[in-house]
Design a protein that fits this description.
With 156 residues, this protein is an alpha+beta fold. Helix content is 37%, strand content 17%. It is built from six helices and six strands; from the N terminus they run H-E-H-H-E-H-E-E-E-H-E-H. The strands form two sheets. It has a four-stranded antiparallel β-sheet. Strand 3 and strand 4 form a beta hairpin. The longest helix has 16 residues. The mean pLDDT is 81.
Length: 156
């Protein structure tokens, strides 16, 4: 982002998205109603967090800060592939923890890095991360907690 504006507001998804819309609207693409319906179906009957849905409504078809990573609704199959890819990487790395039905992988980067949250952690859940190069000596087999909330993850 290049106009010199920096978000200095609180850890609040609504405030942050309003800031983005006001300062960087050319750097993201919003979802339409059909996209949002598809996104909600991805969780297969589970409720997706409100903060995540608000972000996707605002920037679910493209966000410059995530360029090069897979997270958009452009292809609904990407979400199934993200989770399958994450599970495969964890198995290949003999990682102690696994991703189950309660975790939602919302972003991946070139098949070796993944971001996810737990669907049971409320409307603005913590975000976790792992990458293929992390072995148990680095992480003790635990996922890395990047933020205490999805909005904090975006704002950072």
């Amino acid at each position: 982002m290049n106009n010199g504006n920096e978000y200095l507001g609180e850890n609040n998804i609504d405030s942050f998205l309003m800031f983005l819309k006001g300062n960087y609207s050319s750097n993201f693409k919003a979802c339409d109603a059909i996209d949002m319906m598809q996104i909600k179906q991805i969780a297969e009957g589970r409720k997706l967090p409100e903060a995540y849905l608000k972000f996707m409504e605002c920037a679910g078809r493209g966000y410059i800060m995530f360029k090069g990573s897979d997270y958009t609704i452009k292809d609904i199959e990407i979400y199934r592939e993200l989770k399958e890819g994450a599970i495969e990487v964890l198995e290949e790395c003999n990682f102690k923890n696994r991703i189950g039905d309660e975790q939602f992988v919302f972003m991946g980067h070139q098949g070796y890095m993944y971001w996810f949250f737990d669907l049971n952690d409320g409307s603005n859940p913590p975000v976790y991360f792992f990458e293929e190069s992390y072995d148990e000596s680095v992480t003790q087999g635990e996922f890395i907690k990047l933020s205490d909330s999805f909005s904090e993850f975006l704002i950072k």
